[in-house]
Amino acid sequence: MKNRTMASAATFWAALLGTTSVLAQNPAPVLPTAAQTDPVALAWMVGSPPPPNKTVQFHDGSFYKFPQFRWSFSNYRQLAPTTNVGRGTGGASALPRGERTDLDAVTFTPLGKTEPMTWAQAFDANYTDGVVVLHKGKVVYERYAGALQPEKQHMSMSVTKSFFGLIGAILVAEGRLDENAKVAQYLPELKDSGFGDATIRNLLDMRTGIQYSEAYGDPKSEFWTHMFAGRVLPRPAGYHGPDNFYAFMPTVQKLGEHGGNFAYKTINTDVLGWVISRVTGKSVGQNLSERIWQKLGAEQDAYFAVDSLGTEFAGGGLNASLRDMARFGEMMRNQGRFNGQQIIPAQVVQDIAKGGDKSAFPQAAYPSLPGWSYRNMWWVSNNEHGAYSARGIHGQAIYIDPKAEMVVARFASFPMPNNPFNDPTSLPAYMALAKHLMK
Amino acid sequence: MKNRTMASAATFWAALLGTTSVLAQNPAPVLPTAAQTDPVALAWMVGSPPPPNKTVQFHDGSFYKFPQFRWSFSNYRQLAPTTNVGRGTGGASALPRGERTDLDAVTFTPLGKTEPMTWAQAFDANYTDGVVVLHKGKVVYERYAGALQPEKQHMSMSVTKSFFGLIGAILVAEGRLDENAKVAQYLPELKDSGFGDATIRNLLDMRTGIQYSEAYGDPKSEFWTHMFAGRVLPRPAGYHGPDNFYAFMPTVQKLGEHGGNFAYKTINTDVLGWVISRVTGKSVGQNLSERIWQKLGAEQDAYFAVDSLGTEFAGGGLNASLRDMARFGEMMRNQGRFNGQQIIPAQVVQDIAKGGDKSAFPQAAYPSLPGWSYRNMWWVSNNEHGAYSARGIHGQAIYIDPKAEMVVARFASFPMPNNPFNDPTSLPAYMALAKHLMK
Fold it and tell me: I want to staple B148 with a disulfide (CB 3.0 to 4.6 A). Which of A335, B89, B129, B249 is the partner?
């Protein structure tokens, strides 16, 4: 931190993110419900002009306050520059429908609780903005709330990372990227940074030893400089730090050794994105459009939040429609096949699904994920259904259950960022739904 | 102007826009050619990261320098916040193809010249980024250059105004807007501004008497405050003016009388947009999506540049794909019918096509538009083909020739903003093409 202004801004953001205030309180405070914070009912940004107490803007930080972000997450493009992940010029691929009315009543017991809850109740408990469930490729459930609609894109937060990891893994499978090579071999610019002697595999599995704290509650976390560099958040007055993502990456120092335990640090994804761009000569978004989005027959373009140089926000910048996330999840479930073609190599999906090194997964840090592991920036349950997931803060998820032939795509705007708050009413709900669909 | 910093910034922009420097010079300086300024060849924003001398950014103003804007005009979304004009979830409507190879050789004589020029030569002379020509509803010509591609949107500049005027005229036809009513009747907020006692018809035909100079070369023009308010251009340091479009509009004062000569002043379109939003409860972009874009079967979403409140930049914020502009033009040519349905009322199109009051058109100010008039924010040639056009700076155009059953949609990045620079190699080219197609 360069100065007090910046430290103070980070404290402000940490407070907004809710980690300091809410995590520190035990029991957690009673939060306004999903219904009470419905962004349509609250009429954010309605009116010409919207009344001053109903505006949501980037520059004043209101876009990332709760409950305002229940509006922002479905309207990010209105707030900041973005790049397109084009679907091409064709029509959307078929997404067969077979809605079932029995799913709302499916019952599960939230983690740590004894009282059961229904799937319908979980929708609100998780501040869900929308969910699509596919079973054997058919839409068996689709529901939206608040500011989200079928044709709109929603912030996917760290689900983004799984897309970066997937494209990285594809390049490894194609032999264009050597997972055992050092980062500096592809990016001489990072030779003297903490990443120089990390391997591509270290990046893909987030097992680098670097000085980068993801602790949102600590204003001194490198995370904040990272966000300010990329203009993901409005910069504090007097900010003199790095002006874009590329300028930030070389400043990250080494701490400890590479190849140790999985340590979730967003910056690994940025560096992977840089490697992908260097090797392919195209941005990750262009890769995603050409390699996957156009072939999926996506219904909508997706888009990325970007810095002032158009560099995609690797940590959480991807926005997409829910149906397209479901199409993507279905492609994963089908070993890379969808829309009548093999879109990505089956071996890449299999490598993710079989999971990472369980002994390297710091179990204590993830009480809601017992037995899970991390591979190619995907979260792998290693449970009896072989489920694996892309996960983002505030409840974003793509959840693939191979045994149940089920895919869940969900967007949410849960008040607290950390998923341990919504996992208890999400993960057992997915499993209960899977078992119900298998009957 | 509040202070010297701001006046200096406006001078900077005026110089960039080229009006002071280039218009003042006679003969005009020799400009680098389209080939010499091809944005792909110049490799703007290529590389990870792009080299410092190849970056195009919003904050430093480089996005609106020539030749950088040959890249920016096809990538505006990467530079600033935008709102979507959704095409819905369906596929695109058919756009039958019947390319003709004889059109490139069509010859015309540029205005004020004696040497003939071919259609193909005019493509480069106009720094064309793309052009689509429809004849009897078929694509007879489609060509792209530089940074534009079929699936990409391009800035349409003041073509935007014709969309606002069209929607305004539709609301008049529907009886939801009284063209003889005063602006203050719909917008009490503007009662004490210059617009208060102007009629809706005055707005639609830009015949208001207001103190607002469009002279780009004059740093004291109200135009600059308008642009800074909406963050269309980066604000000068120390800017303390209006923070958004809504805050600027009430500051515009009366000058002279309403109902006089046509006087092209961008702010009329903003006020019309406010009226449309107030009357419909939806933004102009939402109106455009629901009333036109979805029904057209557009191939791509369109989008608007917006201010910090998400208010669309009425003066020039619409970005769309060229094929969709052609679809839209074809709907106009067919009296509002396209894609198997009557999308807008035929009488609205007829009202535009028959033109405005010719005696109110200040001929001296538009030497390249002899006999033209202005109606509902459309430019009407009143020529023997009954052609009318939506026009935007730097060469943007939708040109509809009813007699020849021809529609031209063109995007360009001509170095100078004012269309009198490119009209001489555009308007006679359209007429020559029309006559050729009628043979």
Answer: B129
B57·A309 Cβ contact <8 A: yes
CB contact under 8 A, A92 and B91: yes
Per-residue model confidence as pLDDT tens digits over A135-157: 999 999 999 999 999 999 999 99
Q: Look at residue A107 in the predicted model and tell me its pLDDT.
A: 98
Residue B21 has pLDDT above 80, yes or no: no
**Correct CATH for B103-165+283-438 of 3.30.70.3190, 3.30.450.40, 3.40.710.10, 3.90.1210.10:** 3.40.710.10
In whole angstroms, what separates CA A205 from the centre of its chain? 15
Which string of DSSP letters, residue by residue, matches A84-152?
Answer: EE---SSPPPP--B---SSGGG-EE--TT--S-EEHHHHHHHTTEEEEEEEETTEEEEEEE-TT--TTS
Place of tokens 């999985």: A262
> Which residues of chain B neighbour A244 with C-beta distances below 8 Å?
49
Distance from CA of B365 to the nearest CA of A (A): 35
For residue A251, give the nearest of A264, A231, A273, A267 by alpha carbon: A267
Q: At B79, which amino acid appears? A: L
Angle of the B222-229 helix axis to the B267-280 helix axis, nearest 10? 40
Fold for domain B175-273? Methane Monooxygenase Hydroxylase; Chain G, domain 1 (1.20.58)
> What is the rounded distance in angstroms from the CA atom of residue B167 to the CA atom of residue B274?
12
Q: What percent of chain A has pLDDT over 90?
A: 90
| ipTM associated with this complex | 0.94
Residue B367 has pLDDT above 80, yes or no: yes
Q: Which has the closest alpha carbon to A162: A266, A70, A260?
A: A266
Structure tokens at A338: 């969808």
> Structure tokens of A418?
């950390």
Residue ranges in chain A modelled with pLDDT below 50:
1-3, 18-25
CB atoms within 10 A of CB B362: 12
Selecting from A49, A150, A303 the residue whose C-beta is nearest the C-beta of B89 gives A150
In chain B, domain spans = 4-81, 103-165+283-438, 175-273
Q: Classify B216 in phi/psi space as left (phi over 0), alpha (psi -120 to 50) or beta.
A: alpha
By annotation, the residues of B acting in catalysis are 158
